Amino acid sequence: MTQLGSAIRTADFRAADVSQIRGAQQTVATYADIANIPAYILSDRIRVKVKDTGKTFELQGAVFDPNQGKDGLWVGGNWVEIVDDAGGQVLLKADKTDVDARLARSFVVAENRVILRDMTGVAGGAAGTLYLPRSLRITRGAFNEGVTVENDESDVMPGCVEIVIGGSGVGVVLDFSDPDAIEYRKVEFTGDIDLEDAANATTEVIYTGWGDNAKGYWPVVDLENRADVSLTLRRPLVVEGGKLWIPPHYTYSGQNGFTLHNAAWVKIDISTGPSVVATHYFDALAAARGDAQVIKTTVGGGAGMVDGFGRVVFATSCNGQVKTSHPIVGGSVPGGLVSNQCAHSLDIRGVPRLWQTAAIVNLTQAALTGRGIVRGVADAANGQVYCGFDFPDTRGGQRAYFRAAFETATADNFADPRIFIWGKSGALLANIGLELEEKVNAYVAYYGISTELPLTDDIGYFLIGAQKEAGHDLRVTAPQFHNSGQAAWWIGRNDLPQAVPEALAAKVPALQTDLTSAENDIGAIFDQLPFKASTTDMTAAQTDIAKIKKGVIDAPASFGFYYPKRMFLMPGRPLAFYPTQLMPDLNEGLAQVFHLESKADEALPLSARFEDYYEIDPVRVGTRINLTIRRRGDDGRDYRSRREITACVGPENGSELLRLLFLGNSLTHRQRPMLTAQILEARGHTVEMIGTMKNTGGGTNTAPAYAGEGREGRAYADFLNVLTDYMVPLTPGDEAAYRAMSDEAKTGINPMLKVPDADDIANRNHFIHNGYIVDLRFYLDRFGFPDPTHITIDLDRNDWWRVVGGFSATLASIEHGVNVFYTQCRRACPDAYISFVIGTDQFSGYIESLWPQYRYQSMLAIEALVAGAQAGGDTKVDVIVAVGHMNDQTGYPLAYTATDPVTGLKSADLAAGGADNIHPASEAEDGLGVTRQQVVEPIAAWINYTASL
After folding, report:
1. pLDDT (tens digit, 9 = 90+) per residue, 435-461?
2. Which of 228, 427, 856, 899 has its CA 20 to 30 A from that of 179?
3. What is the C-alpha to C-alpha distance for residues 678 and 656, in angstroms, rounded to an integer?
């Protein structure tokens, strides 16, 4: 097995000096001799120096394996060849040659990691245990991201997974069979110790062992039971405020090894006098049970005491000065003791994230209120007591610190405090239990943890708290955290910022406890807060005091905004624009003002200011539109962000022959081909619709008037045959019978699937699902359709509920679907214009709850994929955000439940039966069909513009 480590490979990992691995330099005689360097992954900057030229070649972030028939590097997904010209100059030349099949399949990087092997149990776990890194960076085909494996974290070795291997004939593989649940798996074998044959399409061999022999993907280091090793801490000691804090877990000693498990961190006063801090256990049996304790022994003088029977010295101290051989932070020792980055530790009303129904309540315990901690987060319904914050630094793999205080109404019942770390994508990255730091009394306790963040680029935010037990009352308060890139081992216990100015501190309790008298003073209080509430916020606050009691302030959660690079317009048809529907949060429309500017030659300059809606007149638009968003941040300052959009104004009339293919779900099925074609026909174009379905556009089953391929309820996962329960492939030869079917019957049949041929298997194997592949050329030819000039695709909406596995699985399905359809459409029709349409949703509580993750993040993902194609030279692919050009407040089918007999006013509940939050109403359904018409306007403008090029 080719062994990949964080630097050089040694013949015997057990004898390797790990300290020499990082920052190594290999010197070779010639470039040809580079082939003699073993393979390694470069996680550091590592130099290759050539003796005969004196040139030094620095490598970083690459996988180097010269044993594949040529000297070279695998860099960023491309094979790069090292060339030595006559002058000794180092050159890099791109080459598409594939590397070894196994290496091309996957690379696994665990920075600064080795495989620890404990055959004697010296670490405190079982004898014969491997400790493997839990956070990894995996590159595997198109999969390139940081992951945390599914295996549980070791209680003995933080940041590691422990696997008991026992004796001989045991291997460990990394199992990729489920990309969302990558895990280590033990494999037992007999015979040859090399498990290279076990490396297949779904696994990578990480470790093989036979007797004392071992081979590893990373260096294997044995933990030895040596008599001269007295004690090792898995957390540093902490000195703060005249107190020495000793960690509760993760310690082990030498020959008579034991693991120290105290219930909490041990706090010892070292402010005065000499003392010795020692661990003391009474007999071997007690030690085996982990029944050890930390004690303080006071001795005369400042020299301390020596190790004695049953005792191991942690540290000595005299007048607050600590001497120890163990890692220590705080006091006069720089590093590790970090600042609290939470501005709301004492005023938790401003905490930016509360879990669902959580409420802000007053605390009662003097141990907290005496420190100025007077409010906490409590559960209102479902038992989840959590608050949280966005990370200020979103780099993965860093050591961060988290702490919170807990108040319970039931003595000694603090539930199971923990933190949940979430990605910006919405994926749950980690679920980490907190350590008991200090139990102040039966009703107040502090929990905290210093832990490494998952190794991923997707770090977003965290929630800290607990799931309370039924019948118990629990509150979380005084949150603290630090994440900046600096190793965070501890935050000062008194580092508790006050976000609300002290001048307002007296008003806040009155506002919480006496809402009636405080109501008239709300405006004054809000005017003095560091964040300024908008007029809309003020009105809501004065009319909904419960919101103020809960501590919620309506302010923008982020400054995100999405619109693609190009906007398409058609003269004579002003385009409705609703930018509030393109924010990360639909409620952000309350917190900003939009400015839209453009200038056409010899036309009146366009300069518009609006808060929700604007109608863009193409006559006044030049080649560029500046969209500026002014927002008020929660720090009271105004911010501006600008999006420069290329304006693409087509001709007023045309005479082109347009062949249009609309692929999609129910949003396409419900008249979209017909309504789009009618606009273009009115402008003089000749339109031929391609498709096998009527899509509510009239005609017959075999001869639709406005054909398309819009299918109710279908997702990318259905069209690609990833899911097989809603659609089946159309059997070759059944085309005529299929054409005669109704649209309802055709919905369950997929005419775009074919059995893959040898070329598909060789070059598009990742597009094949359950024995079939989407092939647009096959589809066009089987029905005798001409090549389309324009293809629109709108499918992502139904992946939200069709794909199992939460948001991360949904986003992966959408990204894969966009990739397959773009590739296969471009292969079949090299000259066609292709657009991915972002569909429609009515504003409702349900859509609002899904928007920040599902809709907004899927828009960004589709834009990123299309931008990649455009950067590759494809100028005929675009994104059309139809949702930004339609009214999401009305124009949807409703079930009216009452009609005023005098005025005729109709009333409806958007959540009542018959209401439709997804599909704009037709003219027959609401008498106008305006919203359905609005959706096709930007699509028609795109077709009209591109047809003129």
Report:
1. 888 999 999 999 999 888 888 878 888
2. 856
3. 14
Q: What are the distances in angstroms from CA 363 to CA 483, 494, 549, 551?
A: 28, 18, 14, 15
- Greatest Cα-to-Cα distance within the chain, rounded to the nearest angstrom: 103
Please name which of 713, 675, 705, 672 lies closest in space to residue 689, comparing C-alpha atoms. Answer: 705
Paired tokens of 929? 């069909």
Q: How far apart are CA 822 and CA 820, in angstroms?
A: 6
> Under a CB-based contact definition with an 8 Å cutoff, are residues 658 and 943 in contact?
yes
Spatial separation of the C-alpha atoms in residues 28 and 618, rounded to whole Å: 66
* Top-confidence residue, 232 or 65: 232
Of 462 and 347, more confident: 462
Q: Give, for 116, the enclosing helix (H) or strand (E).
A: strand 115-118
Neighbours of 935 (CB within 10 A): 25
pLDDT attached to residue 194: 47
Top-confidence residue, 624 or 900? 624
Pick the CATH number of 566-649 from 3.30.1490, 2.60.40, 1.20.1250, 2.30.130: 2.60.40
Sequence ranges of the chain with CATH classification 3.40.50.1110: 657-947
pTM of whole model > 0.90?
no
Could you tell me the pLDDT band of residue 781, with boundaries at 50, 70 and 90? very high
Neighbours of 808 (CB within 10 A): 19
Output the CA–CA distances (angstroms, integers) from residue 795 to 77, 566, 591, in the order listed. 29, 21, 31
Superfamily for the 657-947 domain: SGNH hydrolase (3.40.50.1110)
Looking at the chain, the domain(s) classified CATH 2.60.120.260 span 337-499
C-alpha angle 487-489-495 in degrees, rounded to nearest 5? 110
Give the pair of three-digit tokens for residue 623. 């080649």
At 460, is the secondary structure helix, strand, or coil? strand
User: Between 856-871 and 806-828, two packed helices, what is the crossing angle to 10 degrees?
Assistant: 30
- At 25 the pLDDT is 40
Name the strand (E) or helix (H) holding 49.
strand 46-50
With CA atoms as reference, report the closest residue to 444 among 386, 370, 513. 370
Q: How far is CA 130 from the centre of its chain?
A: 29
- CATH class of domain segment(s) 337-499: mainly beta
Quick one: pLDDT band at residue 81, thresholds 50, 70, 90? very low
Burial 53-72 (b: 16+ CB within 10 A, else e): eeeebebeebbbbbbbeebb
